[in-house]
Amino acid sequence: MGTELSSAPPYQGNPDVSYTSVMEAQQGQGPEGQQAPAGTVPVAVEPGDTISGLMAQQGLDWNDPAQRAQFMADNPQFADAAGGRNPDLIWPGEVLYVRPVSPHNGAVPVGGPDGNGQVAYQNYQNGQPVGEPYKATPAANGQPTNAETFAPNGNAITTDKQGNPRDGYFVVDGDSRGNCRWVRFENGVRTEDSFMTSPYDDTADPEIDPATGAARIETDGNGMALNGPVSSTERTPEGTYQSVTSHYVNGVVVRTERGPEYE
């Protein structure tokens, strides 16, 4: 019941009534462009969902007057002052803001997009705000991109360009001379494994995956960048075989040596 914004079905309701769209939720907004309520979780409605069922998933009870009143305050399209939408009628594809009983971890939109399309986020850990609000470009999943935030389990993580926890090598700092330091992340957590590239030696900057921002490099079985020679055997178009030795620096091939062909 209910789903993340990235998996929301197309809106199937009356377009003329007040409702929160997926796009509005991704930008940290409510049904009429107001700021999304802090401390809530945006839930995209699926076919067959009910408000009472979605609240129950978060440990809430629709029949509790205080919890019902809080839901109405977080979703003013159902309040009498907003025209009194019938809460028994919700449509697939609209977004409801539900305030979980369990402590929330992660980034919560607290301000709409600015002229650059960035949204203001507030980080929460165990239900408490951490640090000051910050601006980041929202990803399709509603999470901030390239941001330091918290995973659902409360661990501090860094996101990639898709709003997911970083995995792989990413540039973390550099200087005006073109030197760059690359650090490996696992499930969003920074490791001690890193390397430097510089335009003044024979190391090369790896390609960057435009989707995630991670380096496109070859790694070993432990996820670490390959360094040194790696030998393999290839079959040629003529059907013969050939030994190939690739020399890696920081996961990038800098030289390839091919041996004689044999059958």
Describe, in plain words, how this protein is organized in 3D.
- A hairpin with a 2-residue loop joins β14 and β15 (252-262).
- The strands form 6 sheets. The chain has a 3-stranded antiparallel β-sheet with strand order 3-4-5, with no helix packed on it.
- It is 8% helix and 35% strand.
- The protein has helices spanning 22-26, 51-57, 65-74, and strands at residues 41-44, 95-98, 106-111, 119-125, 128-136, 148-150, 156-158, 168-174, 180-186, 189-197, 207-208, 215-216, 228-235, 241-249, 252-262.
- Among the domains are: 5-98, no CATH class; 106-158, no CATH class; 228-262, no CATH class.
- The mean pLDDT is 87.
- The protein is mainly beta.
Please supply descriptive tags for the structure shown above.
mainly beta, 3-stranded antiparallel β-sheet, 3 helices, 15 strands
Ends: how far apart?
A: 60 Å
Helix content: under 10%
Gross morphology: elongated
Summarize the helix and strand pattern as letters.
HEHHEEEEEEEEEEEEEE
Q: Which sequence of strands runs across the widest sheet?
A: 3-4-5
Largest sheet: 3 strands, antiparallel
Structural class of the secondary structure composition? mainly beta
Strand residues, percent: 25-35%
Q: Low-confidence spans: pLDDT under 50, at least 5 residues?
A: none
Q: Tally the beta strands.
A: 15
Spatial extent as radius of gyration? 25 Å
Assembly state (oligomeric): single chain
Query: What is the tally of helical segments?
Result: 3
What average pLDDT do the residues reach?
87
